[in-house]
Design a protein that fits this description.
Radius of gyration: 18 Å
Shape: globular
Helix content: 10-25%
Structural class: alpha+beta
CATH architecture of the largest domain: Distorted Sandwich
Number of strands: 17
Strand content: 25-35%
Order of helices and strands: HEEEEEEEEEEHEEEEEEEH
Number of domains: 2
GO biological process, one term: cellulose catabolic process
Largest sheet: 7 strands, mixed
Organism: Venustampulla echinocandica
CATH topology of the largest domain: Coagulation Factor XIII, Chain A, domain 1
Distance between the termini: 32 Å
Subcellular location: Secreted
Protein name: AA9 family lytic polysaccharide monooxygenase
Keywords: Carbohydrate metabolism, Cellulose degradation, Copper, Disulfide bond, Glycoprotein, Hydrolase, Metal-binding, Monooxygenase, Oxidoreductase, Polysaccharide degradation, Secreted, Signal
Length: about 300
């Protein structure tokens, strides 16, 4: 316990400069440009209250232009993160794109709107299109750091054409063992989806409102007995609704897992889970390598049982 206390104190001291802002979008490998179509503040400080009125797209937005980025359904989409606007501050900037201690998931949502360039964020209904958590001994944040600030997902092929806000969210869990200490970083991009899809959102949620401070993926001690931030081999439950599933007539199926996937025949994203005992999610990977984990089944059943007890 003393070791954990010292570790958390060190993390708290380093977190002052270790924050991040999502600043760029890429589509099909093409960088769309710094702050083009991205709504971003100058401050890289997180929101820690899940009921904050600015929880949808962040507060004090200073950067918003009229760009609406065209995204074909099925395209590879990336978000680029840097700890301040502009990215690294010099050749030796250990906090760019974010302090390596800030482990956690990266999640993507869409909200259908009439005009992405001008719409406000109040009252929007959001549906999850991708998520990446803990898998293969790495967090999504680890993968983003190793990618030089870039993190990618595949836009579901069934998303209907039209204007949307794309919400990219990173949750830092280094201090999340105490209530209200998880750190939420989010920015929104203005996009226009093209293609022949027909799904403009299912299993939608509101921001704020989608998360509770006590959710198992938000109030959590991520450290194992040796102080390593990887849950000692246990699975991590990503907060929020299920990921949109293009293979389901209902539009979505449960997709809470140790990485990022959606069931019903959809493909999991890079490094996520796609197999294991009693696994009912995706069994193929859109690109790269997925992970099979027999431990997932046991852990998920325990988690569901605890959630049912709380509801009762």
């Amino acid at each position: 316990m003393k070791t954990h206390a010292l570790l958390l104190a060190a993390l708290a001291a380093s977190s002052v400069t270790g924050h991040t802002i999502m600043q760029k979008i890429s589509v099909g490998g093409a960088d769309q440009g710094q702050l083009k179509g991205v709504r971003a503040p100058d401050s890289d400080y997180p929101i820690q209250d899940v009921n904050d009125g600015s929880f949808a797209c962040n507060k004090d937005i200073k950067h918003q232009d009229s760009t609406v980025i065209s995204v074909a359904a099925g395209a590879k989409v990336g978000g680029w993160w840097g700890h301040v606007i502009g990215g690294a501050q010099g050749s030796n900037d250990p906090d760019n794109p974010i302090a390596s201690s800030h482990k956690g998931p990266i999640i993507y949502y869409l909200a259908k709107v009439d005009n992405a360039a001008t719409t406000g964020t109040t009252g929007l209904r959001w549906f999850k299109v991708a998520e990446d958590g803990l898998s293969g001994g790495q967090w999504a944040v680890d993968r983003m750091i190793s990618g030089g600030g870039w993190h990618y997902f595949t836009m579901p092929s069934c998303v209907a054409p039209g204007d949307y806000l794309l919400r990219a969210e990173l949750i830092a869990l280094h201090s999340a063992g105490s209530s209200g200490q998880a750190q939420f970083y989010m920015e929104c991009a203005q996009i226009r989806v093209t293609g022949s899809g027909t799904n403009s959102g299912s299993n939608t949620v509101s921001f704020p409102g989608a998360y509770k401070a006590s959710d198992p993926g938000i109030l959590i001690n991520i450290y194992d007995n040796s102080g390593q931030p990887y849950l000692g081999g246990k699975a991590y439950t990503i907060p929020g609704p299920a990921v949109l599933d293009c293979g389901s007539s209902a539009g979505s199926t449960p997709a809470t897992n140790s990485g990022s996937s959606s069931g019903g025949g959809a493909s999991a994203v890079l490094y996520s889970q796609c197999g294991g005992s009693d696994w009912t999610g995706a069994t193929t990977c859109a690109e790269g390598t997925c992970q099979a984990s027999n431990e997932w089944s046991m852990y998920s059943k325990i988690a569901r049982s605890e959630e049912q007890k709380e509801e009762i």
